Fold this protein.
Amino acid sequence: MTTSMSNAQVRVIDPILTTHAQGYRHPDYVGETLFPRVPVAVSGGRVIEFGLESFRRYNLRRAPGAATQRISFGYAGKPFALVQDALEATVPREHSREAQVPGINLAARAVNMVLKVVTKSLEEEQAAIATATANYDANHKVTLSAGTKWSAATGTPSADIEAGKEAIRASTGAYPNVALLSAVAFAAAKNNPAVVERFKYVSKDSITTEMLAALWGISRVVVGGAVTVSDGGAFADIWGNNAVLAYVPSSPAGAEEPSYGYTYTLDGHPVVEQPYYDNNAKSWIYPVTMERSPVLSGIASGYLIQNPA
């Protein structure tokens, strides 16, 4: 009698390259600043979302013999379904002196090329979610125009950031700790006359994200500078002309911790399978798979500024 094997049984993981893949972060992709990866055990379910109760102050005092207070963070919100990105890394035999499995450095470089493509796709999805106006209520978004743009001499980036911070604080009781600026928004902010004026006696160097973070009282400012290209060869900024403020835990332990968003990632992913040799291509092949889904988990802790530049 024969028995069929499950995909998990058939697939043999390369532990060294999988560990390498799980630690891979491309410096140009900043979406995980808003949507950090957290492991999930299943490919589908419901997003753990967070309301005001996650930020509320509770009465912890207990009288002798009285019942102990209990709290629950988050609730089952919208459904999620992980999607699987799969791509194979190729190491031509000519790049390895002999027809044996290439060394780990060569294999890791090939896997990195694949991971760059996979994580770029993820970056585009994260940006699409974070910059969609429909995902924010009226009190958590603003669209700038004409003289209010940061690129205008009369634009007020710091005031706009402060308004966003206060909107998040009023809704959650916590200030945002992250500001993600698109490349054009960052250029407009650092060249704005009011911002330049604040630093003219402090530094003669170009204004940096660290300087803006200090000015705005935000732990971290990052710039989304990645671009995408259409089939017709047209380039476009992945993060468009937007700025996003959010509260995101710096080192989340899991999806149960209040956050603007998460990237639900199947436990153990991304994975790199054991390589196999393709005679026709005369190459070693390294299959790379990542199951993930970026989700909004606490949209009240986010604020969208559109059209700042």
In short: The two ends are 68 Å apart (CA to CA). Helices lie at 7-10, 15-22, 104-130, 157-172, 183-190, 193-199, 209-216.
